[in-house]
Design a protein that fits this description.
The chain has helices spanning about 10-25, 40-50, 80-85, 110-120, 160-165, 185-190, 205-210, 245-250; strands spanning about 1-5, 30-35, 60-65, 65-70, 100, 130, 155, 180, 195, 230-235. The chain is α/β, with parallel strands linked by helices. Strand 9 (about 195), helix 7 (about 205-210) and strand 10 form a beta-alpha-beta unit. It is globular. The protein binds 2-amino-2-deoxy-6-O-phosphono-alpha-D-glucopyranose (GLP).
């Protein structure tokens, strides 16, 4: 795991954006795995700004989102389809026919999950997966006790996760109880991943992910098994780490390591 710690959230966001742009500029038709949530909002804002400056194009990219709520349609205000259109897709040169999210309003969620996983495979696999982290250590919607090898499937959301996402829905009872999510196995199969976490509310989950045992109790800890996982943090999200001196030594101010 590469652990990059920045002084503030703005620098962390800029770093995560740079990682994505580097992949896209090296391979314009890259397959990108996208994430949602509040942490990702400034990241998408930055990507839109960089696109407007002509520094990146999404014109040939293919995207797969991690997850979607079951039981709501793509045009529902709280859906991740809507989120992605609002924060990224409507503002860059992406070809909407190459953007994929699981359909939450599908007839048969199990079939939808299997087809989604197959589509990722048929697209050649994900070059770079963006990830956030929930306060309970979930990634995508893989809640604690999720299988560490499962592929895209149906997950039941915890009450805590429903509470954390309540802001996207008018009434609490409107918040879906189930989601379709890429599994930890799907995430571990990506060629590289960048997890962005900012703010002290994520500090405990980040410490469990980076320095705790690999355990389904903290699904994000499975990233310790990923051959190319970069964890991008501001100092608040890094506050509970114990090997901070080492991370700063290897990557001073988030820089790439230099050895000679
Ligand atoms: C949701 C998403 C996750 C995201 C998490 C954290 O549960 N499914 O992909 O990482 O929220 O969101 P936030 O960044 O708002 O804390």
């Amino acid at each position: 795991m590469k652990v990059l710690i920045y002084d503030d959230a703005e620098q962390a966001v800029a770093s995560a954006a740079d990682h994505l742009i580097a992949v896209l500029n090296a391979k314009p038709d890259a397959v990108l795995g996208l994430a949602t949530g509040g942490t990702m909002l400034p990241l998408y804002q930055r990507l839109v700004a960089l696109y407007q400056e002509g520094l990146v194009s999404f014109g040939k990219a293919v995207t797969f989102n991690l997850d979607e709520y079951i039981g709501i349609s793509p045009d529902h205000a709280g859906s991740y389809h809507t989120y992605m259109r609002n924060v990224l897709f409507d503002h860059v040169d992406i070809d909407l026919s190459r953007t994929y999210l699981p359909r939450g309003d599908c007839e048969d969620a199990a079939t939808e999950a299997a087809e989604y996983e197959a589509l990722i495979g048929a697209s050649g696999g994900i070059d770079l997966q963006l990830l956030g982290i929930g306060q309970n250590g979930h990634i995508g919607f893989n809640e604690p006790t999720s299988s560490l090898s499962a592929l895209t499937r149906i997950k039941t959301l915890t009450q805590d996760t429903r509470n954390a996402n309540a802001r996207y829905f008018e009434h609490f009872e409107d918040i879906p109880k189930y989601a379709l999510t890429m599994g930890i196995g799907s995430i571990l199969a990506t060629r590289s991943c960048v997890l962005l976490a900012t703010g002290v509310a994520k500090a405990q989950a980040v410490a469990a992910m980076v320095e705790g045992p690999v355990s389904a109790a903290c699904p994000a800890s499975a990233l310790q098994l990923h051959p190319k996982a970069t964890i991008v943090l501001d100092k608040d999200a890094a506050a509970e780490l114990t090997l901070t001196d080492y991370y700063h030594h290897v990557h001073p101010k988030g820089a790439e390591s230099v050895w000679n």
